[in-house]
Specification:
By secondary structure, the chain is mainly α. The protein is 70% helix and 3% strand. It contains nine helices and two strands; from the N terminus they run ααααααββααα. Strand 1 and strand 2 form a beta hairpin.
Length: 271
C-alpha cells in the first residue's frame, strides 16, 4: 500500500467519522426532543448510591459519543503527523479506529428503542459489536507484529484476513436477543472464551512491542503507550460509571498520543 493510498484512507476515515458523529448527535437530540429516547429499561442495572461508581446509562451514551469523537480527532492527527512517513503500523491503527467506530453502533439501540423488541436491526447491531470486539485486539496485535517494513507488501492481505475472521466469528456466535446488556448491546454465548481471547491477544501485543523495542534498541514509550491504549479501550467499551469513564478515556487518549508521537520519532530517526 502506497503512502498516498494510506493518507486517503486516513482522511476518508476522518470525514466518515465526522459525518457519523454529526448524524448520531442529530438523531440523539431529535429522538430526545420528541420523547422517543428512553433509558428506563437500563436503570435496573443501577445498584448503590455512590455517584462515581454507580452505573448510569447516561455515562454509556457519553462514552459512545466519546468513541466517535476520539476516532475523528485521532484519524485527522494520524493524517497530519504521518502524511509523509512510510509507516505501515498506521494502516492497522486505522483499522483499530474503524473497529471502535463500529462498536459505537450501540447508540442506535436506545435511539430507536429496539432493546425490548426482536428486530433484524437489533441483531445486526449486536453482531457488529461482537465483530468490533474481535477486531480491536487483533488490529492492535497486527500494528505490532505486521507493522514492519518486511510486511509492507502483505498489508492488504493481512487486513482482509482480519476483517474476514472477525466477520465470521461475529456471525457464528449466538446472540440472545431477549437479554440486553448494560452497555447497550445484547448478551451472547462464549463470553468467557471471547474475553480470554481478547486478553491473550492484548497481552501478546504488549509483550511483542516490548521485545521488538528491546531488540531494536528503541525507547519503551510505545510499549507504555500501547498498554495505556489497551487498558483504555478495553474499559471504555464497557463503561457504565463516571470513574471508569474518566480513567479509560484518559488512558486511551494519553496512550494514543504517546504511542503515535514516539512511533513518528522512531520513523524519523530511522530515515
Amino acid at each position: 500500500m502506497t503512502i498516498k493510498t494510506r493518507n486517503r484512507l486516513n482522511l476518508s476515515l476522518f470525514i466518515i467519522s465526522l459525518i457519523f458523529l454529526a448524524a448520531n448527535l442529530f438523531l440523539f437530540l431529535f429522538s430526545f426532543y420528541k420523547g422517543y429516547f428512553s433509558l428506563d429499561s437500563y436503570k435496573i442495572f443501577s445498584k448503590g448510591n455512590f455517584l462515581l461508581v454507580n452505573y448510569s446509562p447516561a455515562m454509556v451514551v457519553i462514552s459512545i459519543f466519546f468513541e466517535q469523537l476520539y476516532v475523528s480527532v485521532i484519524s485527522f492527527l494520524m493524517y497530519r503527523i504521518f502524511e509523509k512517513t512510510q509507516a505501515t503500523d498506521i494502516i492497522f491503527f486505522t483499522l483499530f479506529l474503524s473497529a471502535i467506530l463500529l462498536d459505537s453502533i450501540r447508540i442506535y439501540i436506545p435511539i430507536f428503542c429496539t432493546a425490548q423488541s426482536y428486530t433484524k436491526f437489533l441483531l445486526l447491531a449486536a453482531n457488529a459489536v461482537i465483530c468490533s470486539k474481535v477486531l480491536i485486539p487483533f488490529a492492535l496485535l497486527f500494528v505490532v507484529i505486521y507493522g514492519g517494513e518486511a510486511q509492507r507488501q502483505d498489508v492488504e492481505r493481512n487486513i482482509f484476513l482480519i476483517i474476514l475472521a472477525a466477520f465470521f466469528l461475529a456471525l457464528m456466535i449466538p446472540v440472545n436477543s431477549a437479554v440486553p446488556t448494560k452497555n447497550f448491546s445484547l448478551d451472547h454465548s462464549y463470553k468467557r472464551l471471547t474475553l480470554i481471547l481478547s486478553i491473550t491477544t492484548i497481552l501478546a501485543s504488549i509483550a511483542a512491542e516490548f521485545f521488538i523495542n528491546k531488540r531494536m534498541l528503541h525507547s519503551q514509550k510505545t510499549t507504555i503507550g500501547l498498554a495505556l491504549v489497551c487498558f483504555g479501550i478495553t474499559h471504555l467499551v464497557m463503561t457504565g460509571n463516571i470513574l471508569l469513564f474518566v480513567l479509560s478515556s484518559t488512558a486511551l487518549v494519553g496512550g494514543t498520543i504517546l504511542f503515535l508521537l514516539e512511533l513518528h520519532h522512531q520513523y524519523l530517526f530511522n530515515d
